[in-house]
């Protein structure tokens, strides 16, 4: 974009007025168009967010005297959360879940599938793609049943135990690996689709030039593919990290009753709705929001740095 | 540097399309060889098969004395320049040129040195630290060439490398490329759909159509003696006049007019149907009646700069003549087109050239 720097006089640009108002709308007209959307955003996003922030500094609860007359407690809820070993353990479980299933599992497997299927014949590619996509489009409630059955503990032994001839209570004995495997199955399709779309933007001649130079498959990936589609891969990583972090689907498998499989959203759900501690739950949600924000800012920083 | 031999090569795609059909070709050591043909004729497939990017269904590809038919592209010691140049946007010019050397594990300082010297010889010395996006089309093309040269390949494969340049630059690049090939002496296979490019650059060329070679020869042979009507129509900057005729008492009847036979003697029988082929450049326009000329009325005059292309309408036929700039007629005038008998060709009813003896 650095070429053709011949100076164009400002007056020669007829688009100045157009870019300011491309649709030719008056200010009230434009407002009328965005108002319905704005109202929805305010009602369903801004107000609950502000409400959560407010509840986080009160002792509001669903029942009892604090329900009708909540009082201001300052940062007490935050202090309690940060000193709660179960909260901290939920953070650790969540980080392991996100790292294992999203960053390593979905990302690596999704990209590998997209990369390998690119050269595969259609009769092989299409069924595999369809299968992977199915895992993604099946409703979460159905998925919960499917996997509860799959991991089913003895005595009503589930599919996995039947196949392996074992008597293992997978979700209790290996909670984090079990959830990670489940979520890789569930979410790989997205990474596969996004990686596939990015690979399609790569001119075939890029890879052919590398092949003619004698580059191995790994060298092609390292020298040509990754640098070319880095932006898409990072965006994908950001999205699946945030989604997995906030994912509530494990609840459908565990019913929230397995301590080792309690991720942050499930733990907050317990505190707020089962123990009716809305103030504490709100404070924890705010902490979770801050963690999300830090992750997002981190990715954006890397993205901007590599885009130069 | 090496000879390239294509033996009985067939490429059939999975859909059943036959891109190449039992093709034989020998490209000599150090030769600049053009593959010319319309899109879909198989010329690019042939090039990609030599490169190893396409595997043939049958036949052999031999480079030098090595049968490379089943070798992966990287083991063939060939270099290819693609139509879109395929420069890596995240690498500098120097890194792009040095990339194949890096893959071949040439030591860093050595490959930088090689990239610099090849780059400098192609006039890229000042641009080595730029990125491809900061270069003009012509510069990008030279970077792609430099990357190919730096590996010292046995064979250069060029896939329409000039077609992304604008017309003026293309002429310069043509001369540049021909000189470069002469200096390096590397066997070069050059794919193009532009007959002028093939004629101008190649030592020899193959004209292809639907997976088969229709003629192989020097540009002069192909231009002056197209082996069949397909080649006749495909070569030349103005289309060859192809007029139906009949052998009639030692002369040819064309458009109701008896014209003398071209030079040489032919094995033809009375009443044979033939096609008379003569390029507009090899016809002369007379404003007075000539018994050996085809009469017609001037329909269109197109100025080509130094010459003009005149289209005449005769009796049921139309034909074109190239005349010098000072002799262009006006539309509506009568004229007689006289073919140079030494440059007039006859094709039989199957469209093959009838050779004089």
List the helices and strands and how they pair.
The complex is a heterodimer of chains A (308) and B (357).
Chain A: H1 16-20, H2 27-56, H3 65-68, H4 76-82, H5 85-119, H6 122-137, H7 140-150, H8 159-164, H9 170-173, H10 175-200, H11 204-213, H12 217-245, H13 250-254, H14 264-274, H15 278-307
Helix pairs in contact in A: 2-15, 4-15, 5-10, 5-12, 6-10, 10-12, 11-12, 12-15, 14-15
Chain B: E1 4-12, E2 18-27, E3 32-36, H1 43-51, E4 58-63, E5 66-67, E6 78-81, H2 93-103, H3 108-121, H4 137-150, E7 155-159, H5 167-184, E8 187-192, H6 195-201, E9 204-209, E10 212-217, H7 219-224, H8 229-234, E11 241-248, E12 251-254, E13 257-259, E14 273-278, E15 283-286, E16 294-303, E17 307-313, E18 318-324, E19 334-339, E20 345-347
Parallel strand pairs in B: 3-8, 3-9, 6-7, 7-8
Antiparallel strand pairs in B: 1-2, 1-4, 4-5, 9-10, 11-12, 11-14, 12-13, 14-20, 15-19, 16-17, 16-19, 17-18
Helix pairs in contact in B: 2-3, 2-4, 3-4
Describe the protein in words.
- The complex is a heterodimer of chains A (308) and B (357).
- Chain A is mostly helical.
- Chain A has one domain: MetI-like fold (Orthogonal Bundle).
- Helix content of chain A is 74%, strand content 0%.
- Chain A contains 15 helices and no strands.
- Chain A starts with 15 loop residues before the first helix and ends with a helix.
- With 357 residues, chain B is α+β, with helices and mostly antiparallel strands.
- Helices cover 24% and strands 33% of the residues of chain B.
- Chain B has a six-stranded mixed β-sheet, with helices on both faces. In chain B, strands 13-12-11-14-20 form a five-stranded antiparallel β-sheet, with no helix packed on it.
- In chain B, strand 12 and strand 13 form a beta hairpin.
- In chain B, helix 2 packs parallel to helix 4 (137-150).
- Chain B is elongated.
- Chain B starts with a strand and ends in a 10-residue tail after the last strand.
- The relative contact order of chain B is 0.12.
- Chain A binds chain B through residues 1-3, 121, 203, 205-206, 208-215, 219, 223-224, 227-228, and chain B through 14, 51-53, 72-75, 78-80, 82-86, 88-90, 99-100, 102-104, 133-134, 136, 147, 151.
């Amino acid at each position: 974009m650095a070429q053709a720097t011949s100076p164009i006089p400002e007056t020669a640009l007829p688009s100045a007025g157009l870019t300011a108002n491309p649709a030719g709308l008056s200010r009230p007209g434009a407002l009328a168009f965005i108002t319905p959307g704005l109202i929805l955003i305010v009602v369903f996003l801004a107000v609950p967010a502000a409400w959560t922030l407010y509840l986080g500094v009160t002792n509001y609860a669903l029942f009892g005297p604090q329900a009708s007359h909540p009082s201001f407690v300052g940062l007490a809820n935050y202090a309690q959360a940060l000193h709660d070993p179960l909260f901290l353990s939920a953070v650790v479980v969540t980080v392991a879940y996100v790292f294992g299933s999203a960053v390593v599992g979905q990302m690596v497997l999704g990209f590998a599938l997209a990369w390998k299927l690119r050269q595969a014949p259609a009769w092989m590619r299409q069924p595999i793609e369809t299968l992977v996509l199915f895992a993604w489009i099946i409703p979460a409630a159905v998925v919960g049943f499917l996997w509860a059955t799959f991991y089913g503990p003895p005595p009503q032994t589930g599919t996995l135990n039947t196949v392996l001839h074992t008597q293992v209570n997978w979700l209790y004995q290996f909670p984090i690996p079990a959830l990670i495997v489940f979520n890789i199955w569930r979410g790989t399709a997205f990474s596969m689709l996004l990686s596939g779309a990015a690979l399609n933007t790569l001119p075939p001649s890029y890879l052919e030039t590398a092949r003619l130079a004698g580059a191995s498959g790994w060298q092609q990936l390292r020298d040509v593919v990754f640098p070319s589609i880095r932006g898409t891969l990072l965006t994908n990583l950001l999205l699946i990290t945030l989604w997995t972090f906030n994912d509530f689907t494990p609840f459908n498998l565990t019913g929230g009753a397995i301590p080792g499989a309690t991720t942050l959203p499930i733990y907050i759900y317990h505190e707020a709705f089962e123990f009716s501690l809305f103030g504490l739950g709100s404070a924890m949600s705010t902490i979770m929001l801050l963690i999300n924000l830090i992750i997002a800012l981190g990715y954006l920083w890397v993205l901007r740095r590599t885009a130069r | 540097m090496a000879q390239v031999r294509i033996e009985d090569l067939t490429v059939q795609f999975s859909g059943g399309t036959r891109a190449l059909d039992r093709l034989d070709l020998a490209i000599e050591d150090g030769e600049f060889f053009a593959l010319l043909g319309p899109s879909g004729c198989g010329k690019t497939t042939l090039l990609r098969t030599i490169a190893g990017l396409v595997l043939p269904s049958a036949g052999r590809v031999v480079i030098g004395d090595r049968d490379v038919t089943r070798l992966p592209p990287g083991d063939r010691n060939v270099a290819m320049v693609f139509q879109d140049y395929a420069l890596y946007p995240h690498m500098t010019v120097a890194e792009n040129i040095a990339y194949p050397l890096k893959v071949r594990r040439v030591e860093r300082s050595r490959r930088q040195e090689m990239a610099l010297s090849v780059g400098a010889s192609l006039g890229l010395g000042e641009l080595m630290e730029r990125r491809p996006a900061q270069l003009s089309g012509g510069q990008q093309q030279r970077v792609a060439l430099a990357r190919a040269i730096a590996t010292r390949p046995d064979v250069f494969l060029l896939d329409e490398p000039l077609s992304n340049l604008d017309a003026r630059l293309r002429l310069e690049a043509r001369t540049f490329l021909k000189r470069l090939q002469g200096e390096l002496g590397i066997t070069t296979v050059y794919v193009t759909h532009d007959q002028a490019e093939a004629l101008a650059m190649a030592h020899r060329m193959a004209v292809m159509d639907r997976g088969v070679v229709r003629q192989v020869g020097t540009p002069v042979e192909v231009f002056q003696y197209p082996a069949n009507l397909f080649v006749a129509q495909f070569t030349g900057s103005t289309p060859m006049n192809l007029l139906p005729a009949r052998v009639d008492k030692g002369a040819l009847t064309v458009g109701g007019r008896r014209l003398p036979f071209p030079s040489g003697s032919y094995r033809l029988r009375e009443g044979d149907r033939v096609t008379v082929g003569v390029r507009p450049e090899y016809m002369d326009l007379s404003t007075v009646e000539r018994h050996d000329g085809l009469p017609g009325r001037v329909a269109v005059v197109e100025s080509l700069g130094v010459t003009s292309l005149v289209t005449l309408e005769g009796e049921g036929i139309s034909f074109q003549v190239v005349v010098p700039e000072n002799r262009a007629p006006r539309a509506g005038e009568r004229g007689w087109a006289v073919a140079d008998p030494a440059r007039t060709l006859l094709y039989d009813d199957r469209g093959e050239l009838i050779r004089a003896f």
